Amino acid sequence: MTTRVPGAVRDYYGLLKVGKDATAEEIKRAYRRLARELHPDVNPDPEAQNRFKEITAAYEVLSDPEKRRIVDLGGDPLAPGGGQGSPFTGFGGFGDIFETFFGSSGARGPRSRIRQGADALLRLDLSLHEMAFGVSKDIAVETAVLCQSCNGDGCAPGTRPRTCSTCNGRGEVQSMQRSLLGPVMTSRPCPACAGTGQQIPTPCPTCAGEGRVRARRTISVDVPGGIEDGMRIRMSGQGEVGPGGGPAGDLYIEVTERPDETFTREGSDLHCAVAVPMTAAALGSTVDLVTLDSTEQIEIRPGTQSGTIITLRGKGVPRLRSNARGDLHVHVEVRTPTRLDAEQEKLLRQLADLRNEEISVSSNRGGLFSKVRDAFGQR
Length: 379
Description:
The chain is α+β, with helices and mostly antiparallel strands. Helix content is 21%, strand content 29%. It has a four-stranded mixed sheet. A three-stranded mixed sheet has the order 1-9-8. Strands 2-7 form a two-stranded antiparallel ribbon. Residues 1-7, 81-96, 103-107 and 361-379 have low confidence and may be disordered.
């Protein structure tokens, strides 16, 4: 039997018979090779069992970059007092490491028939106004609900589950298999009871033993004001009821904002376009604009250019869980007339003359060219 001098640092590399420059893959191969020789299912010798614990501890340390760094610095990450305790007092979590390579080797007991239900997801289309100020909606939901005939236990009225005759209630069955290690005892969930240790001799005729049925129901969803496209509302316990009548999962409502004819949204800010005639932009005017919740008068100052942005503070979308609101940005588009009658054209030419704006028309190679001198610098 191996012994260890108190206070001495374990030679983890020596236990796995690898050098300090061994790669992660070389360490894994070394552990697999030694585990085939020393695992208790293969070698019942007490010395072999003790060595198996040691090499498993060594693999746990050297396969973890941080623990391996401590070893390379001369420390022992598994020393007593180091927060881990001694790794040689039992298997602890080392069985999981062995299972990674060789599969399950020990019984885990029956699992419960009652399990948590899955979450559900629904999508809800809303208008910009509903997204901005909130709304309460009744929506139809189809999910698994508790079977009222058996109250979730899956048995027909007057009957009860019985202990599985295949696994005797253990939930697992064992079998001897031959492998590279020789005969190995393995465990797997019992196929007769799906690992629960119980069987239902007379299933409920309503749910066929599931403890749940699918049903359509209507629930009310309160959408908060200021919610944005793609956000989800969580409704606890409104999802799928679990197998065996287990607790329901959650229901998530994902909101989608329908395109608006007037406004586009960026977070809590809104943008819209207002078209004004050329004369209104030149002389100045006012425009009535219907916002989300009011009618605002937009002042078009004389000489306003196309592309000018007029900002209305606090006329955007309310911010989520806040009393503040975003802004409304009005983009001015100056419309130039495309068709003029003779009188209109005459008046515009007179205006050009008064403003000393030269309009020259000449033909060159059959083409028509116009040159308008910038009049705004001649005031």
